[in-house]
Amino acid sequence: MEWGVVAAILALGTAASMLFIGVLWSAMMALGQKRYLYGIAIIVCFPVALAYCLQYRQQSKDALKFLLPGLIGTALCAVPMVYLSGYLTAIG
Hints:
mainly alpha, 4 helices, elongated
């Protein structure tokens, strides 16, 4: 079971990193395109990055390549991590 915990933590860390890179990339794209309101909103509240990337798909297609897999991976890893956190507290 310990290797399962390690694998889940690594998967969650990778997915969260991809999500973070996608959010920062979309914020920089928005600020670079002089869409300052979007840029500041993305920095303050990261779900706005998904709305920005979907609205301006052509300009932000590279950021979307990190944002969507990161979002899906983080969501998929959240369920096992909740289960494993209960397992870890029971052991400790």
